[in-house]
Amino acid sequence: MFEGTKLNMFHSNTAAQVVDFPHRTPQLKTIVIGDVARWQAQGMNVAPMDGLRFVAIDAICADTLAEFAPETIFSPLIADTFDALEVAQFLATSAYAGRYCAISDPLPDREAVITEISKHAPGISFDILVVPI
């Protein structure tokens, strides 16, 4: 690799140089709220990953938000046991300052749903990600 060059890392006559490594950008943190038990039973990997946590709806609380401090939260627009309005209202009462995005099949009037949920959860940055079937 270093042909013709004698490399002696421990005994050098030159002054040590300080190497300025680029700062690593902090990992964005995301929570996905949903039916974690069902997802696990279906074989989905719901183990925590770098910057990503899967949380059951009955386990989401102010402590979880404070501890993990997510920048973004995702959930289904409508699930078996909850809907995005309930999540948005909880986030509003918890003073959540990040983004909240519900995931949905195509809707007849996406903007009307966004307006309605935003009206009931003031201060929440809410949007709907439509995933085609």
Observed structural traits:
single chain, 133 residues, alpha/beta, 4 helices, 5-stranded parallel β-sheet, disordered N terminus
Give structural notes:
With about 130 residues, the chain is α/β, with parallel strands linked by helices. The chain is built from four helices and five strands. Strands 2-1-3-4-5 form a five-stranded parallel sheet. Strand 4 (about 100-105), helix 4 and strand 5 (about 125-130) form a beta-alpha-beta unit. The radius of gyration is 23 Å and the shape is globular. Mean pLDDT is about 85; it is low at about 1-10.
In short:
The protein has 4 helices and 5 strands; from the N terminus they run E-H-E-H-E-H-E-H-E.
Q: Extract low-pLDDT stretches.
A: 1-12
Termini Cα gap:
54 Å
Task: Tell me the helix content.
Answer: 25-40%
| Principal-axes shape call | globular
Rg over alpha carbons: 23 Å
* Number of helices in the DSSP assignment: 4
The assigned structural class equals alpha/beta
**Average of pLDDT:** 86
**Number of DSSP strand runs:** 5
- Reading the helices and strands in chain order gives EHEHEHEHE
User: What fraction strand?
Assistant: 15-25%
Give the strand order of the largest sheet, numbering strands 1, 2, ... along the chain.
Answer: 2-1-3-4-5
The biggest beta sheet reads:
5 strands, parallel
List the helices and strands and how they pair.
Layout: E1 30-34, H1 36-41, E2 52-56, H2 62-68, E3 72-76, H3 84-93, E4 99-104, H4 110-120, E5 125-130
